[in-house]
TrEMBL record:
Signal peptide: none annotated. It holds the Pfam family WYL. PROSITE patterns: WYL. Residues 141-204 form the WYL domain. Residues 5-60 form the Helix-turn-helix type domain. This is WYL domain-containing protein. InterPro entries: CBASS_pafABC_assoc_protein, HTH_11, WCX_dom, WH-like_DNA-bd_sf, WH_DNA-bd_sf, WYL_dom. The lineage of its organism: Bacteria, Bacillati, Actinomycetota, Actinomycetes, Kitasatosporales. Coiled coil: none annotated. Gene3D superfamilies: Winged helix-like DNA-binding domain superfamily/Winged helix DNA-binding domain. Residues 237-315 form the WCX domain.
Length: 339
């Protein structure tokens, strides 16, 4: 019999008021018979629990009785920061601790504040992952949580984007960041602090090495600086494009905000049908081609030549696949009214 579960029964009754045996059983993940036994054990221990018979009845504590047994365990204290983030907490392996921590917090609050907390919890919900993709699988995330909190180095096998793609590293984890449903590890390597996408970790093992996290390291400040640097490194070129009114309307749904802002700040009118010409930042020819093709006939690349040619080549391949190669000019160039 778990003493921890008896405490949970007591805290549930204190924070929720009257609860049926079925309600207690469902909350604790046990059978109704076990819930009856747990209540009987609390009564035998002198806790003033009484049963209210009839429809809508259940168990409750004598008015005014409050337990002071709300001390948090180390794991529950760690989980406190994630009390409003059940999804991320589950990713980190702290789902049970979060539930227990929230229950103890509610039990410790005066009645008025407890009711207000319950109302707040009922009207806010966080769903971190973005649309149109499955949640990422992060089997090594709990290991990194342990490494961050105990300041132990980790040996990882990591898949990165550039060659050599698979590398081995000994990392000293400084923190974890959740960005749009994606977990990142911030860790010191051999000679610098870097950011690692957790889903790209192929293998990870805790080492015996202990390290001291620099006292002046600020995870939030580091992440802000990292994002600024990422944006600087992300865009390596520019392109001149023409957009129809419909293309401009659809732009925010198909390209990053930086591109939208560039269009807004550089757009000049061309022709009499509402088209505009603008200069936008680009990551690479391949990436820009993929993004701009989403706008279909509502965009035309003016420059650079290699991007314009990539667009024409891609449209040509599509035209041949659909048996309409005659819509592509012999030169392979695009026109603004391409069907």
């Amino acid at each position: 019999m778990s003493a921890g579960r008896l405490l949970s029964v007591l805290l549930l009754l204190q924070s929720r008021g009257r609860m049926s045996a079925r309600g207690l059983a469902d909350e604790l993940g046990v059978s109704v018979r076990t819930a009856y036994r747990d209540v009987a054990r609390l009564q035998a221990a002198g806790v003033p629990v009484y049963a209210e018979p009839g429809r809508g009845g259940g168990y409750q504590l004598v008015d005014g009785y409050r337990t002071r047994l709300t001390g948090m365990s180390e794991g529950e204290a760690r989980a406190l920061f994630f009390a409003g983030l059940p999804g991320p907490a589950a990713d980190l392996g702290l789902a049970a601790e979060v539930t227990a921590a929230r229950l103890k917090l509610l039990a410790a609050l005066p009645t008025g504040l407890r009711e207000e907390a319950a109302r707040t919890a009922a009207v806010f919900h966080l769903d971190a992952p973005g649309w149109y993709r499955e949640p990422e699988q992060t089997p090594y995330l709990p290991l990194f949580v342990d490494a961050v909190l105990t300041q132990r180095a980790v040996d990882v096998r990591y898949r990165r984007w550039r060659a050599p793609q698979e590398v081995r590293r000994r990392l000293r984890p400084y923190g974890l960041v959740l960005k749009s449903g994606v977990w990142y590890l911030v860790a010191a390597g051999k000679d610098r602090i870097a950011t690692y996408r957790v889903t790209q970790v192929l293998d990870a093992v805790l080492s015996d090495e202990r390290f001291d996290r620099p006292q002046d390291f600020d995870l939030g400040a580091y992440w802000t600086s990292y994002l600024d640097d990422f944006q600087t490194r992300r865009y390596t070129g520019t392109a001149t494009v023409r957009l129809s009114p419909e293309g401009r309307r659809r732009l925010p749904d198909n390209v990053p905000p930086e591109v939208v802002r560039a269009v807004d700040s550089t757009a000049t009118a061309v022709g009499d049908e509402g088209w505009v010409e603008a200069v936008i930042p680009t990551e690479s020819t391949e990436h820009a081609c993929g993004e701009l093709l989403r706008l279909g006939i509502h965009v035309e690349v003016v420059a650079p030549t290699e991007l314009r040619q990539a667009m024409a080549d891609t449209v040509g391949v599509l035209a041949r696949a659909y048996g309409t190669a005659d819509v592509v000019q012999a030169t392979g160039s695009l026109t603004s009214n391409l069907e």
